[in-house]
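Need residues for this backbone.
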């Protein structure tokens, strides 16, 4: 965090990944530590937490290596931004749609108006990853207003909540909106000066996130019944209001909060179970099998209709842990667990060090492209980077998502070039 702030060449994406990674590991380990005797799986959770901490350290090492090897003074790059800066400085023409607004409108429209296209193989991935352009628009707008027009920042922060609110009302899920918010708001943390302020803001944000999660978890069934049952909007809003009414400050000592956290924010248990089965010989290491599947996943299904590889974790979590899991719930394998299943501790160190390096490079490249006003480079690095921020996903989802995001970036870049007065860039 300190190194990123000093160089001031980040859009916050590495911090967003690290936050998302810790969110599915640390809270679960915390409630086990604070409530001895409440759970019967604390040994497995402790084993998994150890591996997840190792992964986080390796990721930070990769991040620092990238910052060191790719550091170049930014003075050589034009400081022309895609944002309007000040009344007396460079500003886009009135005939041109501001870039951050283009991203917001385009991304949200893509996310909620093009849902019929999600039924088409390959095209579904491009639409899904391409809709993440709204995150870039929100991120740039928030950064712009936080630096120059701070009185408008609260209103824009509320506006950014439109996406997670719509995913709740239309889909009944909290996780998608939460991931997008983390990616959007991380830029504020890397732009704040003073490590004490950053840590305080970070802790408060996590506390708020856990508080919202526990209220959602207690009421998610009634909300999903309304949403999945096709209930009218007033009934869905009533179910949503029940979540707001149950909102309370997260208490790790309270059994309902602790059990909710253990059930959905504790990837450590699966990781610890997999480690035990690998050591006992009950499960054979993948030895790179899932890595090869991630490479073959780059071939779009439209070119290979019978491709055996598909997104998701399949039955791998159940096979690795020996648990009989529900068919109605999605259980992501997670980056830590898949790296460990392939090559053990060495796999975790190599994957996360390399992953931290690559994600940091993409993040920095996107930042510098935005400074230069290079839309194509910005989108071609930012959207794949966002697609990689899936700590609970599989390697197949990472590679196929990044490839689809790159294609979507080319499409968005073409659409932007059709805007009037684009030469003002």
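Answer:
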């Amino acid at each position: 965090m300190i190194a990123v702030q000093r160089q001031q060449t980040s859009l916050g994406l590495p911090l967003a990944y690290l936050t998302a990674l810790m969110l599915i590991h640390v809270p679960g380990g915390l409630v086990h530590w604070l409530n001895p005797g409440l759970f019967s799986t604390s040994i497995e959770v402790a084993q998994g937490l150890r591996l997840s901490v190792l992964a986080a350290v390796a990721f930070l090492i990769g991040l620092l290596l990238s910052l060191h090897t790719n550091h170049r003074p930014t003075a050589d790059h034009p400081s022309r931004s895609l944002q309007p800066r000040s009344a007396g400085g460079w500003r886009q023409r009135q005939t041109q749609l501001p870039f951050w607004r283009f991203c917001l409108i385009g991304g949200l429209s893509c996310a909620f108006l093009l849902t019929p296209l999600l039924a088409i193989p390959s095209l579904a991935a491009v639409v899904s990853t391409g809709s993440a352009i709204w995150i870039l628009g929100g991120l740039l707008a928030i950064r712009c207003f936080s630096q120059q027009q701070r009185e408008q920042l609260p209103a824009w922060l509320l506006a950014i909540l439109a996406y997670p609110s719509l995913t709740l009302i239309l889909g009944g899920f909290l996780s998608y909106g939460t991931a997008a918010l983390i990616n959007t708001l991380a830029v504020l943390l890397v732009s704040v000066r003073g490590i004490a302020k950053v840590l305080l803001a970070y802790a408060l944000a996590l506390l708020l996130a856990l508080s919202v999660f526990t209220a959602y978890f207690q009421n998610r069934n009634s909300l999903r019944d309304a949403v999945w049952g096709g209930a009218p909007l007033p009934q869905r809003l009533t179910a949503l209001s029940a979540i707001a009414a149950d909102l309370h400050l997260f208490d790790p000592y309270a059994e309902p909060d602790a059990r909710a956290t253990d059930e959905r924010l504790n990837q450590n248990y699966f990781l610890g179970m997999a480690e035990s089965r690998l050591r006992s010989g009950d499960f054979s290491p993948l030895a790179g099998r899932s890595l090869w599947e991630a490479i073959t996943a780059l071939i779009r299904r439209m070119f290979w209709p019978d491709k055996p590889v598909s997104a998701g974790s399949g039955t791998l979590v159940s096979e690795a842990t020996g648990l009989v899991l529900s068919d109605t719930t999605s259980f992501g394998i997670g980056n830590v667990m898949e790296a460990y299943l392939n090559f053990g501790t060495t796999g975790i160190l190599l994957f996360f060090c390399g992953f931290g390096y690559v994600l940091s490079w993409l993040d920095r490249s996107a930042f510098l492209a935005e400074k230069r006003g290079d839309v194509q480079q910005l989108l071609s690095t930012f959207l794949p980077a966002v697609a990689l921020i899936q700590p609970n996903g599989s390697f197949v989802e990472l590679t196929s998502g990044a490839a689809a995001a790159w294609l979507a970036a080319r499409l968005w870049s073409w659409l932007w070039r059709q805007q009037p007065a684009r030469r003002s860039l």
